[in-house]
Amino acid sequence: MSPQPSSEVSSSSPAPLAGAPEARLLTEAVTRLRRALRSSIRTEYPWETLPMAQVELLQVLGEHSPARVSDLAARRRLAPSTVSGLIGQMISAGLVARDVDSADRRASVVTLTDAGREKLAAWTTAHERRIDAALAALDHTARTAITQALPALFQLAERLGEAADGGTGD
């Protein structure tokens, strides 16, 4: 029997191994969730073709705009050249704009355009609607368990971020 809370296991995904350590099970759960979200958004909303890396940059810019490319790279833990390439694509798509940094006229900053804000809002709404529907299909016990696990999952993400930054988190 699978160590998952539900006895139903999708035939398209292998069941986690019985007795697998918590880290392995959590890795499998996160992987399945990301895969399911990516595929469901494109199945239910075929207009959505924005790559995840660009969505993540839009999300950062939605919270911290304007931002320098180096700041975006640090926040997403990506190489500045990678972020610069993504920003170039996003400028071409009209989602972001590059402007002169008012604090340092030699540097540039990236800001969300109205089209970028609209795209991010539509993407967020579509995902929230999809997750709400999936949560509603679960029984009360499963929904409660997920809700109660959210603070711990955010703490885990923070710890993982600290570890990636070389911090101890203590």
Strand-helix topology:
Elements: H1 22-44, H2 52-63, H3 69-76, H4 80-92, E1 96-101, E2 104-112, H5 114-136, H6 140-164
Antiparallel strand pairs: 1-2
Helix pairs in contact: 2-5, 3-4
Could you walk me through the main structural features you see in this protein, from its secondary elements to its overall organization?
This protein is mainly alpha-helical. It is 61% helix and 9% strand. It has helices at 22-44, 52-63, 69-76, 80-92, 114-136, 140-164, and strands spanning 96-101, 104-112. The chain has a two-stranded antiparallel sheet. A hairpin with a 2-residue loop joins strand 1 and strand 2 (104-112). The longest helix has 25 residues, at 140-164.
Count every beta strand, where a strand is a DSSP E run of 2 or more residues: 2
Low-pLDDT stretches are 1-13
Strand fraction band?
Answer: 5-15%
SSE order, as H and E?
HHHHEEHH
Main features:
170 residues; mainly alpha; two-stranded antiparallel ribbon; 6 helices; 61% helix
Summed up:
This protein has 170 residues and is mostly helical. It is built from six helices and two strands; from the N terminus they run ααααββαα.
